[in-house]
Amino acid sequence: TVTVSNAAAPPPPAGSQTLTVTIAAGADDAYEDNGYDAASPEAWMGFWNGNNEQIGLRFANVTIPKNAVISSAILTVQSSATEDDSNTVQAKIRAKAVDNAASWAAGTNSPSQPPYTTSGVDWDNGPWAGNAAQISPNLASVIQELVTRSGWTTGNAIGLVLLNDGTALNADRGITMFEGGTPASLTIIYSTTGTP
């Protein structure tokens, strides 16, 4: 099943709060295929010429209280101007399973290196229009796993990873990175009442 990637986010529940965090530095988004690149204006997820293509997106200063109840978490990215592939990409979005995600680094903290959250959300995509906002499925389960960690503190960073999840043919989707002028953003709707 191909996931619709431009669906509207659900309305926030009564009494909830909304936080939007945007990639704020070039070192906070990174891309891997047969190498590592944290300075490209665009990045790709999927599979191409025998290589998994995977993206890391680090969102700093996520001011969500520990044990907050997450009702919605939506990733918004801008598609690359050079979208021209019609094959379906099978991707999964997870996060680094750490209390406070460090900046990406080749060989020591790249998107392809675990640990990852147990929770993951499929984001399988058919063709994208170029230069258009693309909206992920709800990532609430992924973010909930992080904010209930014993070491989570408001203001910590979250490192999302967009991993190839079975794409076998040449197929990929491109997104604009910080250096391309339209970085990714993460919008989280949460409540501080109730128990996860």
How would you explain this protein's 3D organization?
The protein is mainly β and 196 residues long. It has one helix at residues 140-147, and strands at 17-22, 29-32, 36-37, 42-48, 51-62, 69-78, 91-95, 121-122, 133-135, 156-164, 171-176, 185-191. The chain starts with 16 loop residues before the first strand and ends in a 5-residue tail after the last strand. The chain contains one helix and twelve strands, in the order βββββββββαβββ. The strands form two sheets. Strands 2, 3, 4, 5, 7, 8, 10 and 11 form an eight-stranded antiparallel sheet that branches. The protein is 4% helix and 37% strand.
Keywords:
single chain; 8-stranded antiparallel beta sheet; 1 helix; mainly beta; globular; 196 residues; 4-stranded antiparallel beta sheet
Helix content: under 10%
What is the count of β-strands?
12
Question: Can you give the mean pLDDT?
Answer: 91
What is the terminal separation in angstroms?
Answer: 29 Å
| Number of helices in the DSSP assignment | 1
| Beta-strand fraction estimate | 35-45%
Radius of gyration: 16 Å
Spell the H/E element sequence. Answer: EEEEEEEEEHEEE
Shape: globular
Any low-confidence stretches, pLDDT <50, length ≥5? none
Largest sheet: 8 strands, antiparallel
Derived structural class: mainly beta
